[in-house]
From TrEMBL:
UniProt GO MF annotations: metal ion binding
Main subcellular location of this protein, as a coarse class: mitochondrion
Topology versus the membrane: Peripheral membrane protein
Key words, A-Z: Chaperone, Disulfide bond, Membrane, Metal-binding, Mitochondrion, Mitochondrion inner membrane, Protein transport, Translocation, Transport, Zinc
Written domain comment of the UniProt record: The twin CX3C motif contains 4 conserved Cys residues that form 2 disulfide bonds in the mitochondrial intermembrane space.
Compartment(s) of residence: Mitochondrion inner membrane
Protein's UniProt keywords contain Chaperone: yes
Source organism superkingdom: Eukaryota
Protein name, as recorded: Mitochondrial import inner membrane translocase subunit
Complex and partners: Heterohexamer; composed of 3 copies of TIMM8A and 3 copies of TIMM13, named soluble 70 kDa complex. Associates with the TIM22 complex, whose core is composed of TIMM22.
Domain Tim10-like: 14-75
Length: 89
């Protein structure tokens, strides 16, 4: 990306939105792969209730875990930021 392109706020916003879309799609793909391997014994025309419950629980745990990790990373970033600010004072 050229210097001019990085200075354009609309382009920066567009790139950020597209990056978020890509991260979301990767997360959905990863979640699908994990839950499919965990819950799907033998594919058939319908999901039985046990498999359906497994998928629901797997997706919920995956989302909870992802959210926990993101929150933890944010906390770590904030604590490092405040630590480095106090070190520079």
């Amino acid at each position: 990306i050229s210097i001019r392109a990085t200075a354009d706020p609309q382009l920066q916003h567009f790139i950020e939105i597209e990056s978020q879309k890509q991260r979301f799609q990767q997360l959905v793909h990863q979640m699908t792969e994990v839950c499919w391997e965990k819950c799907m014994d033998k594919p058939g025309p319908k999901l039985d209730s046990r498999t359906e419950i497994c998928f629901v629980n797997c997706v919920e745990r995956f989302i909870d875990t992802s959210q926990f990790i993101l929150n933890r990373l944010e906390q770590t970033q904030r604590s490092k930021g405040s630590f480095s600010e106090t070190m520079s004072d």
